């Protein structure tokens, strides 16, 4: 019955969000409604809603994205000078996933993982 899940994350500034996800992470814009942004890459889609009063230090927005080639993705992001979270370096986790994490401009935690 269920077919897909699309995370909705807060953003303070649509231009900064686009810059990060499109220019640094390689997503494409699907739609821009001014205060609501839809982006996608491969088979996933993320939505962002404007929350101008968001305090990034108090933001607990998170998304976990599975990938089929985590090593190449990690190397590509490093090459593109994307900052990896200091506590989220590429590593094999006890739960059987190889993962790394980063923070977007609004401190949404984006974790990429692959079954190991």
From TrEMBL:
Give residue ranges for domain VOC: 1-115
Tell me the Gene Ontology biological-process terms attached to this UniProt entry.
response to antibiotic
Q: Does the record's keyword annotation contain Signal?
A: no
Q: Which UniProt keywords apply?
A: Antibiotic resistance
Which InterPro entries does the record associate with it?
Bleomycin-R, Glyas_Bleomycin-R_OHBP_Dase, Glyas_Fos-R_dOase_dom, VOC_core
Q: Of which family is this protein a member?
A: Belongs to the bleomycin resistance protein family.
Name it: Bleomycin resistance protein
- Which lineage? Bacteria, Pseudomonadati, Bacteroidota, Sphingobacteriia, Sphingobacteriales
